[in-house]
User: Which sequence fits this backbone?
């Protein structure tokens, strides 16, 4: 039974860290700006952090679907299938991430109106949001990468990716704010760089694991018809579930 417990823990721990990575980034940002001596900075990170936590949690289905589908192909020993799962997930993450960037102002407006914060706090929150939202494609890509690694029983890679993301964010927060004298823009920039760096490292690990250019060679068969419909149905159901769950939380906390 010890071995089975260890196996479960090796899968559960990266998933737990992945689930809390976005709130942890917000908490670290809050802790750093809390030493600036002005309440508006603290309030801005709290407000914008809540919006981002809700926004990105909605897209957790990318990680869940990547885990399940990658595990199926891994069990079948289907290397091209494993590569397609990653490629499909990353393509979907890129499209959704760019959609969030294009819709950033309506999203920010609705979120901040719902929070009903002080005008000075809202102004700083918008400043933070306008920078960090550019990390959306990287955040969603990291969801896919973590889910894919776990599905392929590469939990250590998923764990390392999450740890690197949060450690990089902490280091850059301390560099940009106390050292360089930045405020909300500094912590937002730190989060943006940390997410992009984590995505790049994750892609390199995945690229090497799948045999380098062999994964690129299958790009022409990235979306077979039956797999595309399965992907859309699976993600649709997971999205509805997550939106319903998060809407309940938002209703009671707003």
Assistant:
């Amino acid at each position: 039974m010890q071995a089975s417990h260890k196996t479960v823990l090796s899968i559960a721990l990266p998933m737990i860290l992945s689930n809390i990575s976005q709130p942890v980034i917000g908490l670290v940002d809050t802790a750093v700006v809390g030493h600036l001596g002005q309440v508006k900075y603290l309030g801005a990170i709290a407000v914008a952090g809540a919006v981002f936590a809700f926004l990105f949690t909605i897209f957790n289905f990318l990680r869940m679907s990547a885990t399940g589908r990658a595990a199926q192909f891994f069990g079948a020993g289907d290397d091209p299938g494993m590569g397609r799962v990653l490629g499909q997930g990353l393509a979907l993450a890129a499209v959704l991430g760019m959609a969030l960037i294009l819709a950033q102002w309506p999203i920010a407006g609705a979120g901040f109106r719902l929070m009903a914060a002080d005008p000075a706090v809202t102004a700083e929150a918008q400043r933070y949001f306008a920078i960090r939202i550019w990390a959306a494609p990287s955040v969603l890509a990291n969801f896919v990468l973590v889910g894919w690694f776990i599905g392929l029983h590469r939990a250590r890679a998923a764990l390392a990716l999450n740890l690197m993301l949060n450690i990089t964010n902490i280091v850059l927060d301390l560099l940009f704010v106390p050292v360089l004298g930045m405020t909300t823009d500094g912590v937002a920039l730190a989060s943006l760089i940390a997410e992009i760096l984590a995505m790049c490292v994750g892609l390199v690990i995945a690229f090497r694991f799948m045999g380098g250019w062999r994964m690129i060679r299958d790009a022409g068969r990235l979306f077979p018809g039956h797999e595309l419909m399965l992907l859309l149905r699976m993600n649709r159901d997971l999205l509805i579930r997550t939106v319903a769950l998060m809407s309940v939380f938002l209703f009671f906390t707003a």
